[in-house]
C-alpha cells in the first residue's frame, strides 16, 4: 500500500471519528488520541521523506494520469523536502498536543477536530503537485485557523480573528484569481504541466499578473511587510497551543509553498526578474527590521513573540528571494530552527498564563521566580533568536546571509540587527518576569486591560517536556552533515527539469549525483557578526531594563530619536481592518510595479 | 490612520494595480474562443469509461475527486468552527422559541402555514434525495441535495414550531450525520487503496448508462457529501437560532 495518501487521510479520518464520538469519549481520551495521530503522521511523513531520498515519487489519485496530452487527475509529488516539511509540521503538532494536555477540558473535542484537519491540510499543502488542490489545502488551513483563533471568545480574540479572517480571505480571492488567469493561458492545473506550457515563453502581462496575485496571497499568509498586520493581532490572542502552530509552521509553510510554485511552475520564466527578486529581498529585510523594532515596545508577551515571528519570517523570505539552492537550503533549515524555538517560547508564555494567570510583562514583573526552568528556556530562546552561533537558526541564517552577501553586502548586517532586536526584547521580558529586574513601568505601549489566563492546574513538568525537547533538537540540528544534506536536497528541489520529467513523462526523477559538489558556502565573511548580534541583544535588553539608572541626557536623547519611531509603529498596528486592507493594496501595487520597472 | 489618508493610500495603490490588471486580462483568450481541451477530453471519454451522463460529476467526484474531499472538509471545518464559537451557556433545553421580540404579542401559528409546511416538507425532502441520487445522471449531486434536505427540515420548524423541530432534529444526530458523511467519503477512497488500487480509484461495477446505480463510486461519494452537507447546514441553523433563544428558567 502506498503511504503518500495515507498521511493526509489518517488525520482527516481521526477528526471525523472524534466529532462522531464527542458525547461518549472520556475526557482525556481525545487529548491522547490526537497526540497519537500526530506522532503517527510525523512518522509516516519521515518514512516518505526517507523513501524518496533518491527518487521523488508522483502519486496519481484515482489512477487518472495523462490522456491525449492533457493531465486529467490530481498528482501528489512526494519529495524529501516536501515530506520533510510535512513531518516537521506533524512533530510540532505532537509537541503541541502534549503541551495542551488538559487545556480544553470542558469544551468537547471540537478543538482537536479542527487541529487535526489543520494538520492534514498542511501535509496536503506540502505534498501536492496540483495548483488547484494547493489552493484547496491553503483554504482549508485558513478556515480551521480562523475558528481556532477566536476560540477564547473574548473581545480581543474576536477582533484578532476578524482581521485575520478578512485579510486572509482577500488573499484567497487573489490566489483564486491568479489561478484562473494562469488556467486561461496554460489550460493546465498540474504544476509540471504549467511549467511545461510556460517553457520557452517570455512572461507577458498575464503571466506576470498571475504570479503576482498568487505570490501576494502566499506573502499575506507568510505575513511579510506590508501584508503582515493581521499576524500580531491573531497570534497574540489565539489559545497558546494554537499560537505555537501558527508561529511555528503556518507562517513559514506559505514560503515553502511559494518556493514550490516558483521552482515547478514559474522557473522557465526569466521574469522572476532582477527587479522582482530585489523587491522580495527588500521586503524581507524590511520585515525583519520592522518586526524587531515593534518587538521592543510590546509588553503583552505573546504579542511580542508574534512581532518577532514577523521579523524572522522576513529573514526566511530573504533566503527564498535569493532564488538559489543555497538560499533555499538556508530558508529550510531556518524554518525548522525558528519553528522549534518560537514554538517553545510560545509554550513558555503559555506556562506563564497557566501558572501566573497573566501575560502582561509589567504586571508579571518578578512574579515567575518560582519557575526557574521556564525562565532559563526563555533566556536560551532569546539568545538563539538573537543569533547565538549554535543550532539550526544560526546554520540557516548563515546560509541565507551567504546567499545574498555578494550582491547586497548590507542585507546580512540588517538581518543581524533584526535578530538582535527580537532577541533583546525577549531577553528584556525574561529579566523582568523571571528576575524582577527593571522599572515597574517605562512608558511602553499599553498592555492588555485585564489579566489573560489559561486553564490553570496543568502539570508544569508535562508542559516542559515539549519545550525542552524542541530546544534540544533546535540546538543539535547543525553541523556540516546537516548543511550538506539540506543543500543537496534543496538542489534536487530546485531542479525544474527533473520535476517536469518525473510528473509528465513518468521519468525516474532521480538526480544525478552532482560531481562538482554543491556550491558550499564559504566560511562566513565575518564570523564575529553573530557575536556582535548577541552582544547587541544584551545591550538592548540591558538599556531597556536599566533605563532609570542611565544618565539623564542619554535618556532624553534616546527618547527624542526613538519615541516618534515607536509611536508611529504603534499607530500603524492599530487593529483597524480598513488600514490593513489599504496596506495590502499598496503591497499588491508594489509587487505588480516591480514587473513594469525596467 | 485617518479616513482620508487611508483612501489616498488605497487609491494610489489602485492607480498602479488597475492598469496592470487590465493589461493582464487582455492576455486572456478572447470571448467565445474555445480553450478547454480538458473539457473536450473528459466529454469524449466520460460515458465510455465511467458510464455517467453528467460530466461535471465525473470531474468533481472521480477525476478530481480528491479536491472535492478537501472542499467537503472546508465545509466540515467551517461548521465545526461555528458550533465551537457559538457554544453558549444555554444547555439543551428546547421549550422556548428563539427570535422573540419582547413586548410583541405572540401570534399563534396559522393553520395554513402548518398545513402547507406539512405538505411541502416531505416533498422537499424527497426532492433533496432525488437530486442526490441522480448526481451522476443530471445536474445536481450531494452538495445541492444536502442543502435541499436541510431546507426540508427547516419546514418542520416553520410548521410545528421550535420545540418540535429540536425534538426531531437532534444535534447529536446532526454531528453524527456530518461525521458519517465525511467518513463515507474517506473510507470509500480507502477501500480501493486496500484492494491494491490508488486512493479514490473507481473500481466498483459501473452499471448501465443512465440507471440510478451507474458510475461506480460516484453515487456513494454523493451520498456521503449529502449527509455531511445536510447535517452541517442544520447544525448551523440550530446554532444561529440558539443564539437568540432566551434560556428557560431551569437553565442557567
From TrEMBL, chain A:
<feature type="transmembrane region" description="Helical">
    <location>
        <begin position="30"/>
        <end position="50"/>
    </location>
</feature>
<feature type="transmembrane region" description="Helical">
    <location>
        <begin position="460"/>
        <end position="479"/>
    </location>
</feature>
<feature type="transmembrane region" description="Helical">
    <location>
        <begin position="71"/>
        <end position="104"/>
    </location>
</feature>
<protein>
    <recommendedName>
        <fullName>NADH:quinone oxidoreductase/Mrp antiporter transmembrane domain-containing protein</fullName>
    </recommendedName>
</protein>
<feature type="transmembrane region" description="Helical">
    <location>
        <begin position="203"/>
        <end position="224"/>
    </location>
</feature>
<feature type="domain" description="NADH:quinone oxidoreductase/Mrp antiporter transmembrane">
    <location>
        <begin position="129"/>
        <end position="422"/>
    </location>
</feature>
<feature type="transmembrane region" description="Helical">
    <location>
        <begin position="410"/>
        <end position="427"/>
    </location>
</feature>
<feature type="transmembrane region" description="Helical">
    <location>
        <begin position="528"/>
        <end position="546"/>
    </location>
</feature>
<dbReference type="GO" id="GO:0042773">
    <property type="term" value="P:ATP synthesis coupled electron transport"/>
</dbReference>
<dbReference type="InterPro" id="IPR050586">
    <property type="entry name" value="CPA3_Na-H_Antiporter_D"/>
</dbReference>
<dbReference type="GO" id="GO:0008137">
    <property type="term" value="F:NADH dehydrogenase (ubiquinone) activity"/>
</dbReference>
<keyword id="KW-1133">Transmembrane helix</keyword>
<comment type="similarity">
    <text>Belongs to the CPA3 antiporters (TC 2.A.63) subunit D family.</text>
</comment>
<feature type="transmembrane region" description="Helical">
    <location>
        <begin position="580"/>
        <end position="597"/>
    </location>
</feature>
<feature type="transmembrane region" description="Helical">
    <location>
        <begin position="161"/>
        <end position="183"/>
    </location>
</feature>
<keyword id="KW-1003">Cell membrane</keyword>
<comment type="function">
    <text>NDH-1 shuttles electrons from NADH, via FMN and iron-sulfur (Fe-S) centers, to quinones in the respiratory chain. The immediate electron acceptor for the enzyme in this species is believed to be ubiquinone. Couples the redox reaction to proton translocation (for every two electrons transferred, four hydrogen ions are translocated across the cytoplasmic membrane), and thus conserves the redox energy in a proton gradient.</text>
</comment>
<feature type="transmembrane region" description="Helical">
    <location>
        <begin position="236"/>
        <end position="259"/>
    </location>
</feature>
<keyword id="KW-0812">Transmembrane</keyword>
<feature type="transmembrane region" description="Helical">
    <location>
        <begin position="373"/>
        <end position="390"/>
    </location>
</feature>
<dbReference type="InterPro" id="IPR001750">
    <property type="entry name" value="ND/Mrp_TM"/>
</dbReference>
<feature type="transmembrane region" description="Helical">
    <location>
        <begin position="116"/>
        <end position="149"/>
    </location>
</feature>
<keyword id="KW-0472">Membrane</keyword>
<dbReference type="GO" id="GO:0005886">
    <property type="term" value="C:plasma membrane"/>
</dbReference>
<dbReference type="InterPro" id="IPR003918">
    <property type="entry name" value="NADH_UbQ_OxRdtase"/>
</dbReference>
<dbReference type="Pfam" id="PF00361">
    <property type="entry name" value="Proton_antipo_M"/>
</dbReference>
<feature type="transmembrane region" description="Helical">
    <location>
        <begin position="279"/>
        <end position="297"/>
    </location>
</feature>
Amino acid at each position: 500500500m502506498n503511504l503518500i495518501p495515507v498521511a493526509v487521510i489518517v488525520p482527516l479520518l481521526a477528526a471525523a471519528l472524534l466529532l462522531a464520538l464527542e458525547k461518549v469519549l472520556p475526557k482525556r481520551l481525545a487529548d491522547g488520541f490526537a497526540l497519537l495521530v500526530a506522532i503517527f503522521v510525523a512518522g509516516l511523513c519521515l518514512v516518505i521523506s526517507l523513501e524518496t531520498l533518491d527518487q521523488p515519487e508522483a502519486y496519481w489519485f484515482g489512477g487518472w494520469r495523462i490522456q491525449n496530452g492533457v493531465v486529467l487527475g490530481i498528482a501528489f509529488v512526494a519529495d524529501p523536502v516536501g515530506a520533510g516539511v510535512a513531518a516537521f509540521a506533524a512533530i510540532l503538532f505532537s509537541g503541541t498536543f502534549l503541551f495542551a494536555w488538559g487545556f480544553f477540558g470542558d469544551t468537547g473535542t471540537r478543538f482537536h477536530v479542527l487541529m487535526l484537519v489543520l494538520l492534514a491540510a498542511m501535509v496536503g499543502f506540502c505534498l501536492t503537485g496540483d495548483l488547484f488542490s494547493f489552493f484547496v489545502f491553503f483554504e482549508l488551513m485558513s478556515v480551521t485557523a480562523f475558528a481556532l483563533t477566536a476560540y477564547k471568545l473574548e473581545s480581543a480574540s474576536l477582533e484578532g480573528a476578524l482581521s485575520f479572517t478578512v485579510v486572509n480571505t482577500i488573499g484567497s480571492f487573489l490566489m483564486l484569481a491568479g489561478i484562473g488567469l494562469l488556467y486561461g493561458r496554460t489550460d493546465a492545473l498540474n504544476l509540471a504541466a504549467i511549467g511545461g506550457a510556460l517553457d520557452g515563453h517570455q512572461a507577458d502581462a498575464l503571466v506576470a499578473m498571475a504570479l503576482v496575485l498568487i505570490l501576494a496571497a502566499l506573502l499575506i499568509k507568510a505575513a511579510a511587510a506590508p501584508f503582515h498586520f493581521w499576524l500580531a493581532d491573531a497570534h497574540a490572542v489565539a489559545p497558546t497551543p494554537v499560537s505555537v502552530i501558527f508561529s511555528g509552521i503556518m507562517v513559514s509553510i506559505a514560503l515553502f509553498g511559494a518556493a514550490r510554485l516558483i521552482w515547478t511552475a514559474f522557473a522557465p520564466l526569466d521574469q522572476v526578474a532582477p527587479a522582482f527578486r530585489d523587491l522580495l529581498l527588500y521586503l524581507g529585510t524590511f520585515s525583519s527590521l520592522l518586526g524587531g523594532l515593534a518587538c521592543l515596545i510590546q509588553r503583552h508577551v505573546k504579542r511580542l513573540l508574534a512581532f518577532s515571528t514577523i521579523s524572522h519570517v522576513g529573514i526566511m523570505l530573504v533566503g527564498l528571494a535569493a532564488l538559489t539552492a543555497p538560499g533555499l537550503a538556508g530558508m529550510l533549515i531556518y524554518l525548522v530552527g525558528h519553528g522549534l524555538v518560537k514554538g517553545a517560547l510560545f509554550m513558555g508564555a503559555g506556562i506563564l498564563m497557566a501558572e501566573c494567570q497573566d501575560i502582561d510583562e509589567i504586571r508579571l514583573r518578578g512574579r515567575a521566580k518560582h519557575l526557574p526552568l521556564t525562565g532559563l528556556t526563555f533566556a536560551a530562546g532569546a539568545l538563539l533568536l538573537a543569533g547565538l552561533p549554535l543550532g539550526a537558526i544560526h546554520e540557516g541564517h548563515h546560509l541565507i546571509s551567504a546567499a545574498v552577501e555578494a550582491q547586497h553586502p548590507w542585507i546580512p548586517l540588517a538581518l543581524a540587527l533584526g535578530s538582535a532586536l527580537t532577541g533583546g526584547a525577549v531577553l528584556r521580558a525574561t529579566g523582568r518576569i523571571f528576575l524582577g529586574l527593571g522599572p515597574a513601568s517605562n512608558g511602553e505601549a499599553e498592555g492588555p486591560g485585564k489579566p489573560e489566563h489559561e486553564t490553570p492546574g496543568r502539570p508544569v513538568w508535562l508542559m516542559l517536556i515539549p519545550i525542552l525537547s524542541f530546544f534540544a533538537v533546535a540546538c543539535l540540528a547543525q553541523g556540516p552533515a546537516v548543511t550538506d544534506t539540506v543543500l543537496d536536497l534543496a538542489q534536487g528541489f530546485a531542479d525544474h527539469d527533473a520535476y517536469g520529467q518525473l510528473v509528465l513523462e513518468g521519468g525516474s526523477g532521480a538526480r544525478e549525483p552532482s560531481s562538482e559538489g554543491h556550491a558550499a558556502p564559504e566560511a562566513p565573511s565575518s564570523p564575529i557578526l553573530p557575536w556582535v548580534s548577541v552582544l547587541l541583544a544584551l545591550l538592548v535588553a540591558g538599556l531597556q531594563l536599566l533605563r532609570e539608572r542611565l544618565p539623564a541626557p542619554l535618556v532624553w536623547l534616546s527618547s527624542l530619536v526613538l519615541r516618534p519611531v515607536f509611536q508611529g509603529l504603534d499607530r500603524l498596528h492599530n487593529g483597524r481592518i480598513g488600514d490593513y486592507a489599504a496596506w495590502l493594496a499598496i503591497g499588491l501595487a508594489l509587487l505588480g510595479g516591480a514587473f513594469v520597472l525596467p | 490612520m485617518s479616513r482620508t489618508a487611508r483612501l489616498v493610500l488605497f487609491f494610489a495603490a489602485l492607480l498602479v494595480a488597475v492598469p496592470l490588471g487590465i493589461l493582464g486580462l487582455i492576455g486572456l483568450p478572447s470571448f467565445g474562443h474555445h480553450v478547454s481541451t480538458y473539457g473536450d477530453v473528459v466529454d469524449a471519454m466520460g460515458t465510455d469509461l465511467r458510464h455517467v451522463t453528467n460530466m461535471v460529476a465525473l470531474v468533481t467526484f472521480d477525476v478530481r475527486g480528491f479536491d472535492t474531499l478537501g472542499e467537503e472538509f472546508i465545509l466540515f471545518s467551517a461548521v465545526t468552527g461555528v458550533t465551537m464559537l457559538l457554544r453558549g451557556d444555554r444547555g439543551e433545553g428546547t421549550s422556548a422559541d428563539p427570535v422573540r421580540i419582547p413586548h410583541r404579542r405572540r401570534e399563534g401559528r396559522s393553520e395554513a402555514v402548518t398545513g402547507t409546511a406539512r405538505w411541502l416538507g416531505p416533498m422537499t425532502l424527497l426532492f433533496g434525495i432525488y437530486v442526490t441520487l441522480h448526481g451522476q445522471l443530471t445536474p445536481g449531486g450531494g452538495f445541492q441535495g444536502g442543502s435541499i434536505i436541510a431546507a426540508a427540515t427547516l419546514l418542520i420548524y416553520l410548521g410545528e414550531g421550535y420545540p418540535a423541530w429540536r425534538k426531531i432534529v437532534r444535534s447529536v444526530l446532526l454531528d453524527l450525520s456530518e461525521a458519517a458523511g465525511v467518513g463515507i467519503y474517506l473510507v470509500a477512497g480507502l477501500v480501493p487503496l486496500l484492494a491494491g488500487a490508488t486512493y479514490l480509484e473507481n473500481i466498483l461495477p459501473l452499471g448501465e448508462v443512465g440507471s440510478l446505480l451507474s458510475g461506480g463510486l460516484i453515487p456513494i461519494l454523493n451520498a456521503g457529501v449529502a449527509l455531511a452537507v445536510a447535517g452541517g447546514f442544520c447544525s448551523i441553523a440550530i446554532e444561529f437560532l440558539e443564539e437568540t433563544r432566551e434560556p428557560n428558567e431551569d437553565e442557567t
